[in-house]
Design a protein that fits this description.
This protein is about 50% helix and about 10% strand. By secondary structure, it is mainly α.
Length: about 200
């Protein structure tokens, strides 16, 4: 049995429409995420001791791995970890509002929710090529950061709280090259309940 598996979506493929289509979700979840998992499993098959580690430990310590799987663990382990979070950060309960607890934490760091969304969106728009924009917890404070490719904030000692995938495979079917429109639509399906769980755990 494969060590790592793609988690089942917690909602139907079409549940995020019209902001993210059923076609995009099927391609993104069933094809792209599956490819990361398949290649991650190939890596740990080559060095089974790495298959005994959890995905977060792999992300944090991949630089200590044998040279022949180091890049595979970084790229495909990161792809698996990031996407596993991403599916849960989305919800068919559209246009959720952050709880008062979450709102207070965001207000304390960014001034207000609108300023936060503006800064987050600007960061996501400016990611060059493929990557992610994140809200992270860093030494007890919320901050924003971008990562290239499938890099994870965990490698920099930061905990991801909310992230948007800005690889073209995440939005091209629905939005073509209009990344800003994808980001705007994405806010409608953010799972603030899940975000709060990450903030308060």
């Amino acid at each position: 049995m494969a060590k790592f598996e793609v988690p089942k979506l917690p909602y139907d493929y079409g549940a995020l429409a019209p902001y993210i289509s059923e076609q995009t979700m099927k391609l993104h979840h069933d094809k792209h995420h599956q490819a990361y998992v398949d290649n991650l499993n190939k890596a740990v098959d080559m060095h089974p001791e790495w298959g005994e580690k959890g995905i977060e430990e792999i992300i944090k310590t991949y630089d200590k791995a044998p040279d022949d799987i180091k890049t595979m663990l970084k790229n495909h382990g990161g792809g698996h970890y990031n996407h596993s979070l991403f599916w849960n950060m989305l919800s068919p309960k559209k246009d959720q509002s952050p709880s008062e607890t979450t709102k207070q934490m965001i207000d304390a760091q960014f001034g207000d929710i609108d300023t936060f969304k503006k800064q987050f969106g600007e960061g996501a728009t400016k990611v060059f090529g493929s990557g992610w924009q994140w809200l992270v917890m860093d030494n007890g404070k919320l901050s924003l950061m971008s990562t290239p490719n499938q890099d994870s904030p965990l490698t920099q000692g930061k905990t991801p709280i909310l992230g948007i995938d800005v690889w073209e495979h995440a939005y091209y079917v629905d939005y073509q090259n209009r990344r800003a429109d994808y980001i705007s639509g994405w806010w409608h399906v953010v799972n603030w309940e899940y975000v709060e769980g990450l903030l308060t755990k």
